[in-house]
Design brief:
single chain; alpha/beta; 5-stranded parallel beta sheet; 8 strands; binds adenosine monophosphate
Length: 214
């Protein structure tokens, strides 16, 4: 069973790639960012407790995130891709404990690498479909009709944390807290570096090839 982690800075394309790969291989797409945004929108207890972190581009405390992950994995019998988790060393350690308890393990960690300026350009132009989650970019992949999803006619929106100030903070947080966990997975022989600076299809094909052969 395939169980993977997608690592990469915000805007590296990991969400889009992970979603597409899950569709192709019938895997569960587990995005902690999506789970938090849904909770915030629905104003649940989780949403009320985490909104201030998400809005400021800060990390939500590890114990809250690990609680979400444990709930997602308990009773799950499908392969999955983690998108945006783990983001700290403590989360990576906590994940190992949860997986051990459940008798599971991670097979691969895909590390998408993209330069900072390309990331900022991508994120400020990013628009998402409220209904199906499909991602557009006003410059490189614009919707056919302004504000409307090509795939499902759902309304498009811009994430509140996709503005330049919060993006810069998210990149700082990434460099300081998340990038170091590359070494955690490299030491375990699980990390596969992918050049995420190319077009979507090219990146997708190289991931499919790596997943098939690694
Ligand atoms: P993302 O959609 O992955 O870019 O996540 C959006 C925001 O949700 C982040 O900027 C954090 O505030 C929060 N978040 C998502 N995943 C995590 C995580 N694993 N640990 C801490 N905070 C997270």
């Amino acid at each position: 069973m395939t169980r993977m982690i997608f690592l990469g800075a915000p805007g590296s394309g990991k969400g889009t790639q992970a979603r597409q790969l899950c569709e192709k291989f019938g895997l569960a797409h587990i995005s902690t960012g999506d789970i938090l945004r849904k909770a915030i929108k629905e104003e649940t207890e989780l949403g009320k407790n985490t909104r201030r972190y998400v809005d400021g581009g800060e990390l939500v405390p590890d114990d809250i995130i690990l609680g979400i992950i444990k709930e997602e994995l308990t009773g799950s019998d499908r392969g999955f891709i983690f998108d945006g988790f783990p983001r700290t060393h403590a989360q990576a350690e906590g994940l190992e404990n949860i997986l051990n308890e459940l008798g599971m393990n991670i097979d691969r960690v895909i590390n998408l690498q993209v330069g900072d300026q390309a990331i900022i350009d991508r994120l400020v132009a990013r628009r998402l479909c409220r209904s199906c989650g499909f991602e557009f970019n006003l410059k490189t992949r614009p919707p056919k009709q302004e504000g409307i999803c090509d795939r499902c006619d759902g309304p498009l929106f811009q994430r509140s944390d996709d503005n330049e100030e919060v993006i810069n903070n998210r990149l700082d947080v990434y460099r300081e807290k998340t990038k170091p966990i590359e070494d955690f997975y490299r030491a375990r022989g699980l990390l596969l570096d992918v050049d995420g600076g190319k077009g979507f299809e090219e990146v997708f094909d190289s991931i499919v090839e790596m997943v098939g052969t690694a």
